[in-house]
């Protein structure tokens, strides 16, 4: 096994101090917290449609109300203030700002974000804005969604419109969140909206998402003041080979190709990886890539956002005759995914922070782009104790260990600019509904009461000290 056992590392005895400019943040996304799904002119997104389709989300839950942040944003900003958080990453709901996805700005919709931004700035919190965290206007899906090249152009118009309204006050702009999920979970596996199950569609959607990003970058630059940061957030995976054999290493590299290189290579090198195009050629001929697209997609960015939750473990398997590639992993019929040993979160995701250091070091080595961790955190089955508090020691441990791993990456030379914990508060966890709680603040979804968890107090200490304290 090539994995490093986390317990092999000596425990730190002194605080791990971060660079003075390191940004400490918390992250959320519009559909997961806002609620107010049909208020003030907002029209449905693909997630409204999907969550209202029976069988798609656990317990039939939807984001109709969620954490009611649309009405409670002032209280939520006050909570962030109490936690000492320096930056807040939120996303803008496209159909709230441009109902139906095209045309004029909805004043009431954009005013919500304008008030939120002002509230943040008033509290000394820097806004970090994500333009697309998966909530495509339903009308654009009716016209083909991300399978339709035109959606990329509509996204660029939307990006320009939001930048024109908020660009004077928001310094950091993230175009897309985890387009791998939009493409492969949305069009390949069908676990996310719009719920298609077709590998060729997943690859088509992937390209159009990248094109959307690339078209938006110059529009953002034109609308934003000089010095604004323009970025994209990926969920790059760097799976480990089960055994250190050429076959298992090749299998791991294939998965790395789909999860990471087919995004980072066009964005940062201006070309799709030839091996990925070759091993997916049984699924698609990639004719959706038009002349000039790669130049558009590789428009320079200032930073790459990295969302990290867990590493993976993959190896080679002998494909059986007639076996069909899994729709989530086109061209990977000869790859097997095996569960990792050790601790797991309530999502069933393994806990191994050494994977974060490995990933950051690899991205830095291969691409040299400034990095920021735009999401990291864990779901656990929280218990409210008799004292009314949430003593979430497992989440404290998860966050602590990943911060130590981030610190290690900086020590290894990675240009890592910041860390945003996922999530500020419990929210609608997509296909899992409200069962999976990721917040450092608990939300009681019956009363909408917020309670800071022990992990929130731990994070407050880290942010205040700009350091991870030694293990008590
Ligand atoms: C990421 C998403 C985020 C949240 C976390 C747990 O993939 O970007 O919205 O669901 O996972």
How does this model look, in words?
The two termini are 31 Å apart. A hairpin with a 4-residue loop joins strand 13 and strand 14. By secondary structure, this protein is of the alpha/beta class. The chain is 39% helix and 14% strand. An 8-stranded parallel β-barrel has the order 2-3-4-5-6-8-11-12, surrounded by 5 helices. Helix 3 packs parallel to helix 5, helix 8 packs antiparallel against helix 9 and helix 13 packs parallel to helix 14. It binds beta-D-fucopyranose. Beta-D-fucopyranose (FCB) binds next to loops.
Evaluate the radius of gyration: 21 Å
Alpha carbon gap, first and last residue: 31 Å
> Helix and strand succession?
EEHHHEHHEHHEHHEEHHHEEEHEHEEEHE
Question: What share of the residues does DSSP label as strand, in percent?
Answer: 5-15%
